[in-house]
Amino acid sequence: MSVYRETSGVQSKVEPGAQNRLPVGDLFSGHDWIKADRIFLYDRDGQRFQDCFSSEGTANLGYIAELTGHVLSEKPSDIQVSSLCEALTALVPSGLSHVCLRQSADEALAMALVVARKYFIAKGFQDKTYFLELEFTRRTTMRTAGAAKNLKDNAFDVRSVYLPPICYGSEGYCNDESTTDWTRQAIASLKRFITLNGADRCAAIIIEPVQIMGDLEVIPPGFLTQVHIECSRLGVLLIVNERLSSFGRIGGAFFCSVEGVLPDILVVGKGLSAGYHEIGAALFAAHLGEALDQIEDRQDSSENSKALGDLSITTTALKLYGEEGLDESARDMAAYFKLCLLELLPMPYIGSIRVQGWLATIAIVENKLRNVKFPQRVSVGKKISANALKQGLIFKVVEGDVLAFAPSFNYTKADIDRLVEGVRNSIAATFFSG
Known about the structure:
The chain has helices at residues 54-57, 78-91, 105-122, 143-148, 176-197, 223-234, 255-259, 289-294, 301-308, 312-323, 326-342, 380-390, 413-432, and strands at residues 13-14, 33-37, 40-43, 48-51, 96-102, 130-135, 157-162, 168-169, 172-173, 202-207, 210-213, 215-218, 237-241, 265-268, 280-285, 350-356, 359-364, 393-394, 396-398, 402-405. By secondary structure, it is α/β, with parallel strands linked by helices. The chain folds into 2 domains: 13-67 and 327-432, Aspartate Aminotransferase, domain 1 (Alpha-Beta Complex); 78-323, Type I PLP-dependent aspartate aminotransferase-like (Major domain) (Aspartate Aminotransferase, domain 2), CATH 3.40.640.10. The protein has a 7-stranded mixed sheet with strand order 5-15-14-13-10-6-7, with helices on both faces. The chain has a 5-stranded mixed sheet with strand order 1-2-3-4-18. The protein has a 4-stranded antiparallel sheet with strand order 16-17-20-19. Helix 11 packs parallel to helix 13 (413-432).
């Protein structure tokens, strides 16, 4: 079966029972859904809703029976763990040969810090004690610092360097020249920070290349390559956190593979289970394998495995990802998704539309010419979302009246057309009805 090209509900209907959990995300988990079919959710009144956000962009494969027909067990078997790791390493960039499974992307990120520290201690570089997180959005995440707080050894020093704001126009980056200038300025900022804080004490540089913190924010092409070059020059590790951008979500299999960069450590989240299972993983290059094996905390590797729960759904999701290459399958329809969404740009009150693969945001503004947002008290985004629900569409409203979309990969052109027309009508109903 082609999970990316399924055009009918045949053999994909899901009747949730005690063993089934629909990956609808926290935003709509409180609704009384009684069944799901491909990209649609149904409530007890029989109303059908088209899911346009796919559990924070992790339910990549939609609602298909292959991912809900498992009888869950309390803990994974060694065979399940081995099969999952084998399937995962077959999908990620070649060279990432060691896998550490955790219960979330944040826990996997924390394990990445532990392994990096142990690696340098083993090599005799005990002074490499701080980790540098690159912040490039207008609202900082402090994600790595948050992950480090959960470690038993609270001595991890996570620092942030704040890069210049990325220049965006109404349809994405301003132009190639502006992104080149930004990359040059950002690398200069990075060099200054490392020089002031001590290059010989930096253990790793960490970057999350795609984020939705209000608007969709994506580092420009080529920047990750330049960061990788700096890491090699300084003798520090590169950790790429692809909790949102992995498994085809950005139109290619992984952001780092699209950029042609092999990080020392790659972190992924529950997209690896297609949103059906809370899980994360850190993948390590071969030179870090020995440090991973020597970590005393893998004491509880058996307990960690038990905490992961049943892994059969995740293994099946990885198998489905691999059936039709993530790159080609995700990219074709994603291009149509972008083309159709940009047709909305001439509408009044739409300030900008940003699209990267299967991720998109639409910023609603009061003054389009000056790009001035509505006062927060007006809650325009929530009103548009309420009108969309009346039309059977589900998406997320994030900070600053921004509409966020992350369709599953089994969307067809007809599904995309329905999404775009529903958004158009919802905006029109909010501003022009009555």
